[in-house]
Design brief:
About 40% of the residues lie in helices and about 30% in strands. The chain is of the alpha+beta class. The chain has a single domain, classed as Jelly Rolls (Sandwich), CATH 2.60.120. It is globular, with a radius of gyration of 16 Å. The N and C termini lie far apart (about 40 Å). It holds the Pfam family cNMP_binding.
Length: about 160
């Protein structure tokens, strides 16, 4: 893993990051806070990005590459779409991560450190959480739909 500082120019969102739905929908103050406290990380194939059991308040946004999600060592999903968010739930709850995420190919991600929230006003903080929770609800709904479809297919095969 290699980590590079992200040099954010306040008030601007680069085209690559503008494609990330979550970032495109937060207000400018929260966006500036997110990006000013983020870094770009690069992982080689096979490297762990997140480890099951670890506790962290950081989450990641996939920019390029493909990652594999494993629970108890068993592959459960592959994510390859730019803008996919990883480790978001445990970054909010502070609980141990429930899956390991590894680079299936050479990957670039945005590592988001949520300590910027302390510098936001109450209204900016509320606006950030509204966008974050809405985005997470959409992500979780999509994942539940995909999991339900896989479960239905498995039950059909039985």
């Amino acid at each position: 893993m290699r980590e590079y500082p992200y040099r954010h120019e306040k008030g601007k969102l680069p085209p690559t990051l503008a494609k990330v739905e979550f970032l495109a929908n937060v207000d400018q103050a929260a966006l500036d806070g997110i990006l000013s406290n983020s870094s770009l990380v690069e992982f080689d194939c096979g490297e762990d990005i997140l480890q099951e059991g670890e506790i962290s308040t950081e989450f990641y946004i996939l920019l390029k590459g493909e990652v594999e999600v494993k629970k108890a060592g068993e592959a459960v999903a592959t994510l390859a779409q730019s803008g996919e968010i990883l480790g978001e739930l445990r970054s909010l709850t502070g609980e141990a991560r429930t899956a390991t995420v590894s680079a299936a190919t050479h990957c670039f991600l945005l590592k988001v450190k949520q300590n910027f929230i302390d510098g936001l006003s109450e209204s900016e903080r509320s606006a950030y959480y509204i966008v974050l929770y809405r985005f997470l609800a959409e992500v979780l709904a999509k994942r539940l739909e995909e999991t339900s479809a896989r479960l239905a297919a498995l039950e059909k095969d039985l």
